[in-house]
Specification:
The complex is a heterodimer of chains A (457) and B (403).
Chain A (H helix, E strand, L loop, with lengths): L2 H26 L15 E6 L3 H11 L6 E8 L2 H15 L10 E3 L3 H7 L6 E4 L6 H11 L2 E4 L7 H16 L4 E3 L7 H11 L6 E9 L17 H7 L5 H4 L1 H18 L3 E9 L13 E8 L4 E7 L7 E8 L3 E5 L9 E3 L9 E4 L7 H15 L6 H20 L3 E2 H6 L41
Parallel strand pairs in A: 1-2, 1-4, 2-3, 4-5, 5-6, 7-10
Antiparallel strand pairs in A: 7-11, 8-9, 8-15, 9-10, 11-12, 12-13, 13-14
Chain B lengths: L2 H11 L3 H11 L25 E4 L2 E4 L27 E4 L6 E7 L2 E5 L16 E5 L2 E4 L5 H8 L2 H9 L5 H11 L25 H15 L8 H9 L15 H4 L31 E7 L12 E2 L11 E4 L15 E3 L24 E2 L3 E3 L5 H8 L17
Parallel strand pairs in B: 6-9, 8-12
Antiparallel strand pairs in B: 1-2, 3-4, 4-7, 5-6, 7-13, 8-10, 10-11
Helix pairs in contact in B: 2-9, 5-6
Classes of the chains: A alpha/beta (457), B alpha+beta (403).
């Protein structure tokens, strides 16, 4: 170690001691100056909880933020193989930025606590396990004074949404920086489009349309449990198949297009009515429908039409649009990025009516959301997306419940629905029974529109 | 779980038709009748190196389950031909789908490949002109549509069997092997909002187009591949020596092609414009079409005398050739002799690392059409020429779903 490195190391340790003191103080006084990473030589430590594809991607984005030292120090998952492959991918790509020795790799349902215990207040925990666990982990992160990056959706039912709204408030009081993985909000093209819509360039919005029709996705189509896996771990591994774990394919896949429309409208819908069904079931036992069609209504009467379909071989469309009194806009074109946002002076969206489009090179919003979070942490700027993330999740659940029950569901209906999909989640162990039980044939309860109207299954 | 070894072998080797046939040869077991050009070959027994088992999705078949006989091909009477004179147009059938692919016979012959230095807008890579001799083949009348491509890409044939609750035949299983070889499904809408039914498939890598052909070959029992660059230009010219197969006047393009002059918002349905003299549609425009060859930026290599079925086997991933120009390109890029080389810009927006070996996020003007040579090549010829390309494409590891 050179003298200079020794000096830096000493500075760093001194800094860490100091931050500990500040952290202790800040936990006592709500709204007090938080733990910040303003000093040039400090390192932000990251813990990854939930080491699947998205978690690994989020960690990769975190380690790619280029405004000061940042490293991954702990990882947790309930599956050793997921943690292992995630670690190998990250260590291979980021080398020295990945400092996760065996003793900081945690397998099991308490892994999130132990991984967060490796952090100091002001560091960042990535929550990328299935959405069901979000409130449990967020609660602990707040207790620990940690900044948070949490994947969407952040809730899947009424009771946990209320809980998360409380936690969101608490995190704001503690001045924690909280990011929610609705990365489209961080997309430069969409941000410019939003400004232009606010500027009146398509007039008043009358209708929004959102589509995600692109064949089977994620683990939504799930076949029977293999014999060599516990029921609980199977449901977590195939989390898109089970409403308690993820809100199903509906919540996990459609929330982005719903949220980007609501953003452009600058409002949240108050009501949803919907239809949907499961045409093809084949060998699948999951709780999802394979088509969804939702009409959302905003307080001013404006409608948002949402189409979701996971049947292969059909017309594909993965896009969002806004229609106004003076023109129309493409919010996203195909998947999330590049958005290729455009404005037309007509409802007929063809080239000769084009009045604006974002340039060809869009920054990757998955990276942008991390750049923005880490910058906010280092500069101690207000940054908390938790409440907005919960509301987006409730709005999403509202459409899902409308389809699954066949009833009109209002925002308040959804928030106050007492059906908690997975009560007692905070006490799960590897030996616990799964929150959803199969019948003797290995089949799970599915929605029954018109028959089950106050709950989804 | 005897299946995993065989599948790992597939993953590691990136199956290609040549690879499978090669394995067959190496194993030294039955099904070698293809060496004499019999079309039933493609149904030979497919054996992994170790252990002796048949590669199928989800595992491996114990060798005892495989009948000793060749797997029968899918019967299409008009597709049978032993000589050029016997070649007829036919509709290839894709079992477990409603899709057929119309194939037109292209008689063998000689032509002058490339453009003369006097041709307007000529690029250096289009010469020197060379005399080329082409053996007979069938060529798809139109570009491969999403309707056909999606069967392979989205496993629609497998899906239909599940819906109808039918067990796969051995031929199905052979074909399924090539579906399993494409483990990553696109996380997006690859039509980019431009439409699907009847529209040309786009945004595939050359490897993807090659694998589609391997799948179709296994699916039908007839050997399909991408055309060579020479075959493509021969078919495009259809006996003409002008800039386009209808003459030299770009003003007439609108009757024959979709290009920047008459499209703005995307590709068009295939087969809606006039065909060329040999009945092929959209050779000019709509989507540029993959051929097998490496792009040689400085022009064609020097060669002595007439070349017979030339192919520049790719040695690098970029640039490889697409032909005919696409809907967003200008008249000069649609000329019969015009060549375009692929670039890494075609995959610039792939968010994954490493980038996909299947999808080109930014090649919205690139598709392909297929050919079937009259003379089915031997396994060795496939391995050394028609099915060969370097570097070998290796997919990212497939996510593991259980222990």
């Amino acid at each position: 170690m050179s003298n200079q490195e020794v000096q830096q190391d000493t500075d760093r340790r001194a800094f860490l001691r100091n931050t500990g003191v500040i952290a202790a103080a800040s936990t006592l006084v709500a709204g007090a100056r938080p733990v910040v990473h303003a000093a040039e030589d400090n390192t932000i430590q990251v813990a990854l909880v939930g080491c699947g594809g998205r978690g690994t991607g989020a960690a990769s984005n975190a380690l790619s933020v280029n405004n000061g030292p940042i490293k991954l120090v702990a990882m947790a998952d309930v599956f050793d193989f997921k943690l292992k492959s995630s670690y190998e991918a990250l260590a291979g790509q980021f080398k020295a930025q990945v400092d996760v020795p065996e003793e900081r790799k945690f397998i099991g349902f308490d892994g999130y606590k132990r991984a967060m215990d490796c952090l100091k207040p002001g560091d960042v925990v990535v929550m990328a396990s299935p959405p069901a666990f979000r409130w449990v982990m967020f609660k602990y992160a707040i207790e620990r004074g940690l900044n948070v990056f949490m994947e969407k959706p952040v809730t899947v039912d009424g009771p946990t949404s209320k809980r998360m709204l409380e936690l969101a408030k608490l995190s704001e009081e503690k001045n924690l920086k909280v990011a929610v993985g609705l990365m489209c909000r961080h997309c430069a093209a969409r941000r410019e489009l939003y400004d232009r819509i606010k500027d009146g360039q398509i007039g008043d919005i009358l209708l929004m349309r959102a589509y995600r029709m692109a064949g089977p996705t994620g683990s939504a189509a799930t076949e029977k449990k293999p014999a060599n896996m516990s029921e609980l771990l199977y449901q977590i591994n195939r989390f898109h198949g089970f409403l308690w774990a993820s809100g199903g394919g509906f919540s996990d896949f459609l929330i982005h297009n719903i949220d980007e429309c609501c953003w452009m409208k600058d409002a949240w819908p108050v009501e949803a009515k919907a239809s949907g069904g499961r045409h093809y079931r084949n060998n699948c036992v999951d709780q999802n429908f394979d088509t969804y069609s939702v009409e959302y209504t905003f307080a001013d009467g404006t409608k948002m039409d949402l189409q979701g379909r996971t049947i292969p071989g059909c017309h594909d469309e993965f896009a969002s649009y806004a229609h106004g009194t003076k023109g129309a806009a493409v919010i996203s074109t195909a998947a999330h990025t590049p958005a290729r946002c455009r404005i037309y002076n007509s409802q007929k969206m063809i080239s000769k009516n084009l009045v604006w489009q974002y340039g060809p090179n869009e920054p990757n919003p998955y990276q942008e959301e991390w750049n923005h979070l880490i910058e906010a942490i280092r500069q101690d700027k207000p940054y908390n997306e938790a409440e907005r993330g919960v509301i987006a999740s409730v709005v999403t659940s509202m459409g899902r419940m409308a389809a699954h029950t066949g009833q009109v569901v209002t925002y308040d209906d959804m928030l106050n629905c007492e059906h908690e999909f997975a009560p007692g989640l905070e006490q799960l162990t590897l030996e616990s029974p799964a929150p959803l039980q199969a019948d003797a044939e290995g089949k799970y309860p599915v929605p029954q529109p018109g028959l089950l109207t106050n709950r989804e299954y | 779980m005897f299946g995993f070894l065989a599948l790992d072998c597939l993953e590691a080797k990136r199956i290609s038709f040549g690879c499978l046939l090669g394995g067959l040869l190496a194993a030294g077991v039955g099904g070698l009748s293809f060496l004499d050009g019999s079309p039933s070959v493609l149904g030979g027994r497919l054996l992994a190196d170790e252990p002796p088992a048949v590669n199928v999705p989800g595992g491996a078949l114990p060798v005892d389950d495989v009948p000793g006989d060749d797997v029968p091909l899918v019967e299409v009477p008009d597709a049978a031909a032993k000589t050029e004179e016997e070649m007829k147009p036919y509709k290839e059938i894709i079992v477990d789908s409603d899709v057929t692919i119309e194939m037109l016979p292209i008689k063998g012959g000689k032509f002058l490949m490339g453009s003369p230095e006097t041709e307007s807008s000529r690029e250096e890579d289009e010469g020197p002109q060379r005399e080329v001799e082409i053996s007979p083949f069938w060529m798809a009348k139109v570009e491969i549509t999403w309707d056909a491509y999606d069967i392979w890409m989205s496993d629609l044939d497998i899906f239909r069997r599940q819906v109808d609750n039918r067990q796969p035949t051995l031929r199905d299983k052979l074909a399924d092997t090539f579906s399993v070889s494409q483990p990553t499904k696109p996380y997006t809408d690859m039509t980019f909002g431009m439409g699907k039914r009847g529209f040309p498939a786009i945004c595939m890598t050359q490897h993807s187009a090659r694998t589609f052909c391997d799948w179709l070959s296994a699916k039908t029992g007839r050997y399909y591949r991408l055309p060579t660059e020479a075959e493509w230009e021969y078919a495009c010219r259809a006996g003409t020596t002008t800039a386009y197969s209808f003459g030299d006047d770009p003003e007439q393009l609108d009757q024959y092609a979709w290009y920047s002059g008459n499209t703005e918002d995307g590709y068009a349905k295939v087969g809606r414009k006039k065909p060329n003299p040999w009945g092929l549609h959209d050779m000019h425009g709509n989507v540029a079409e993959w051929v097998l060859d490496q792009h040689t930026e400085d022009g064609y290599p020097e060669a002595e005398g007439p070349l017979r079925n030339p192919l520049e086997v790719p040695k690098t991933l970029y640039p490889r050739v697409v032909r005919g120009g696409g809907w967003d390109q200008d008249p000069e890029q649609l000329r019969s002799a015009s060549r375009e080389g692929s670039t890494e810009d075609w995959i610039a927006q792939d968010p994954q690392e490493p980038v996909s070996i299947w999808y080109l996020t930014d090649a919205l003007h690139v598709g392909f059409r297929i050919v079937r040579p009259l003379d089915t090549p031997t396994a060795e010829e496939v391995k050394e020429k028609w099915g060969k390309s370097e570097p070998v494409q290796v997919d990212r590891p497939k996510p593991k779903e259980d222990h």
